[in-house]
Write a structure and sequence with these properties.
eight-stranded mixed beta sheet, five-stranded antiparallel beta sheet, 13 helices, globular, binds S-adenosylmethionine
Length: 374
């Protein structure tokens, strides 16, 4: 039992014996010093516990860069344009995306209005990761990225024009766990055993409004023992993103699916996944703060919440379809030609394909584009 385990145990005691799983997850991932994303050694990729698309291959950031560039063109090539990335991890996406933006600005005839200084804003809650991002993007991002810890702190919040982007942000927010028990939806809480280890207990919902986060089809189709995960925090973030924008797009890339499929998947699997040293497990109570905890995103919920605050769904697709639209397959074809002669090209090709193939991230990751006044 590490220090964070003891701190959470104290919190459980002072809360009268139990806390929601969402409260537990918030501490395990975001405790200011000991939480998974705030520890000095936190990293993503080979040295860390899991990979994300930007860490797999720079072509991901290049394709996202092309998408951002196209949105800028669609908005009439404004001379002032903000790209806000929320939850930027190591900063790899910012680095690769800016590289592509610069290339397009330099080469594309459509940029005839002259180069535009993209305002790149990163909203990152972790001071450790903000430092890592500064290092990673030190070349392409030098002097043109600004950092903030929360969305509301961003100068111009409410009047931004541009794109708000995130990759694997929503799957890392705190989730409540619900279970269908004798015909009623109840909640799973975290409590303590006598020896101080964590255990789960089922009790009435911490908030009667939680089932309203589900669409009706799910609420009516639940069977005894089905388990669900829900994140009101995700609804709050999408609302804040909408509020931050005056005009533009919200581009969300993440693991998950539309409802009801996303909930049927988690009803069977329990919904929560943990990663430690690139290995999947389903025990969020070991190595507290030293392993990642994540859940699939309900994209229908993001669309419903967004719809209430002026975000209109433009497109929802798999990551494979998204990448195909932005020149991914041309790059694959080039590498395939070289791979006959060059082993390094073959290795690179294999990595790139992880982003695209259904057994990799291609189907599991989805891309949702919503627009506001654009
Ligand atoms: C799973 S990581 C993804 C990192 C990166 N986007 C990538 O794809 O490699 C989640 C990121 O979101 C950040 N994060 C989580 N909640 C946040 C919040 N409310 N505001 C800003 N950043 C947040 C974490 O600190 C971390 O950088």
């Amino acid at each position: 039992m590490n220090q964070l385990h003891h701190l959470i145990a104290d919190k459980i005691r002072s809360a009268g014996g139990r806390i929601t799983f969402a409260e537990y997850m918030a501490e395990a991932l975001y405790h200011p010093m000991l939480g998974y994303y705030n520890r000095p050694e936190m990293t993503i990729g080979e040295q860390g516990d899991f990979f994300t698309s930007p860490m797999v291959h720079p072509v991901f950031g290049h394709c996202v860069g092309r998408q951002i560039y196209q949105l800028w063109l669609e908005m009439g090539s404004p001379s002032s344009f903000t790209l806000l990335e929320m939850g930027a991890g190591t900063g790899a996406l910012a680095r690769d995306l800016l590289q592509e933006w610069d290339r397009l600005q330099a080469n594309e005839p459509a940029a005839n209005s002259g180069p535009v200084a993209l305002r790149y804003v990163i909203v990152e809650q972790s001071p450790v990761l903000r430092g890592r991002q500064r290092e990673t993007a030190s070349e392409t991002g030098k002097g043109r990225i600004e950092w903030h810890a929360t969305l509301q702190e961003v100068p111009g919040y409410g009047s931004l024009e541009g794109v708000i982007l995130s990759n694997e942000l929503f799957d890392a927010l705190p989730y409540h766990r619900l279970v269908m028990d004798k015909g009623r939806l109840l909640e799973r809480y975290v409590t303590l055993e006598e020896d101080g280890s964590f255990a789960e207990v089922t009790a009435p919902l911490s908030d009667e409004r939680l089932p309203l986060l589900l669409d009706e089809q799910i609420r009516e189709g639940l069977e005894e023992g089905d388990r669900l995960v829900l994140s009101p925090a995700a609804g709050k973030v999408i609302r804040e993103m909408a509020d931050a924008l005056n005009k533009g797009y919200v581009l969300t890339i993440d693991y998950g699916n539309l409802s009801p499929d996303v909930h049927w998947q988690s009803a069977r699997s329990g919904g929560i996944r943990c990663y430690y040293k690139q290995t999947l497990n389903h025990d969020p109570y070991t190595r507290v703060g030293e392993q990642d905890i994540t859940a699939d995103v309900d994209f229908s919920y993001l669309q419903r919440e967004g719809g209430q605050v002026g975000l209109e769904t433009v497109r929802f697709s798999t990551q494979s379809d998204f990448l195909e639209n932005f020149g991914f397959l041309d790059k694959v074809t080039d590498l395939q030609r070289m791979a006959f002669r060059d082993l390094r090209a073959d290795f690179e090709l294999q990595k790139m394909l992880t982003l695209y193939l259904p057994q990799g991230l291609g189907d599991a990751c989805k891309v949702l584009m919503q627009s506001k006044g654009a």
